[in-house]
Amino acid sequence: MRAIHLLVSVVTIVAAQTLPSAPQAQVLVNITVTPPPLPVYAQPVIPGPDYMWVPGYWAWGPDEYYWVPGTWVLAPAPGLLWTPGYWGWRDGFYVWNAGYWGPRIGFYGGINYGYGYTGVGYHGGYWNGGVFMYNTAVVNVGTVRITNVYSKTVINTTTVTNVSFNGGKGGITAQPNAQELAAANDKHTPATGLQTQHEHSASGNHALLASVNHGHPMVAATAKAALFTGAGVVAAKGFNAAAKSTGAAGPKPPGINAAKVAGQPGSKPLNAARMAGPAALNSPPRQYKTGPAGPRPPGVNAAKVAGQPGSKPLNAARMAGPAALKPPPRQYKKPDHPQKP
What is the pLDDT of residue 155? Predict the structure, then answer.
């Protein structure tokens, strides 16, 4: 496996030297495994003014893809926009073209990342001097106090898909337009240190592996970069919440309804024999001492023992157990000389 990765690295360097746009594309890795489809998720609320949306993407780890959640970050400088990275099919393998910051949006494979990144340009806002104007028709500002806003509906004339790569079988067939080709010659700034940390944190999160989440990561997006727990974390649509761990208390015993165990309204209380399990159902009757010090006998309904309204009171014979249900008849001695009235 190490030899294969080394060979892949060599092929990457050679391919980068033969591609006309390689210096701008920043080709980093190439593989033959098809990138998974993009998950569908809701955009977290923006943390504050001047934050820029960086859509999520599939990155390649040592052996497979892992999901890097979408997040909000600050631009390195006012006036810069984020061009997302994308997977492209070239000469029989998939090549990752890294994203970058620049004065205008460049080509990102025609991939529809959503939330303003429809495949061409960015429709979530624009810089107005040193202030970023947000399109509330695209950006989720929530209740955050942001005054530089406008609303413009984005009309997408292309077919919306969740394909995550350009070219090859099943890939997006988009080609760069004149403006995107011109943007390739602009001065570009690579991802910030926080973005790099965000991707590194994702690579170490087992739940974000494609083989684990099957394209539906539990952390599809997050409001704060490199923070994958707490408020602002959004799961992908289709993520099965029932697959989460039940917690330190352990799983629920089979055959016992959780609502009944918790004593929720409308449920039938569980008697002692049912709570004790199958072994107690067929066990021989035990003798129990009456009175408050004695335990409750199996088969006695908890509501009746507690004297709840609607239950029949238990008499002493029933509380004493099976042996006291039919006491032997008592013998009475007749008087020798009965008195007449």
Answer: 74
What digits encode the pLDDT tens for the residues 249-288?
334 434 434 333 333 444 444 443 343 444 433 444 444 4
Within 8 A by CB and 6+ apart from 276, the residues are 298
Residue 40 CA neighbour count, 13 Å, CB half: 5
Joined together, the tokens standing for residue 27 give 């080709």
Calpha distance 93→296 (Å, rounded): 71
Rounded Cα distance, 224 and 218, in Å? 16
Query: According to DSSP H, which parts of the chain are helical?
Result: 2-18, 22-25, 178-183, 193-203, 210-213, 258-262, 272-276, 278-281, 302-306, 316-319
User: How are beta strands 125-128 and 27-31 bridged, if at all?
Assistant: unpaired
- Please tell me the predicted confidence (pLDDT) of residue 257: 43
**Residues 6 or more apart from 157 whose CB is under 8 A from it?**
none
Q: What secondary structure does DSSP assign to 159-208, as a single string?
A: PP----EESSTT-B-----HHHHHHTTS--B---HHHHHHHHHHHT-GGG
The confidence score (pLDDT) of residue 329 equals 56
* Rounded Cα–Cα distance for residues 292 and 52 (Å): 68
Asked whether 148 and 133 are in contact (CB, 8 A), the reply is yes
Report which DSSP code applies to 242. Answer: G
**Structural tokens at position 82:** 């984020």
The strand pairing partners of 222, in sequence order, are 71, 233
Give this prediction's pTM: 0.65
Contact between 146 and 219 under an 8 Å Cβ cutoff? The reply is: no
Q: Which residues of the chain register pLDDT less than 50?
A: 1-27, 242-325, 332, 334-335, 337-341
Gyration radius from the chain CA atoms: 35
* pLDDT number for residue 282: 44
Say how far apart CA 48 and CA 39 lie, in whole Å.
25
Distance between CA atoms of residues 111 and 119, nearest Å: 5
* CB 132 within 8 Å of CB 94: no
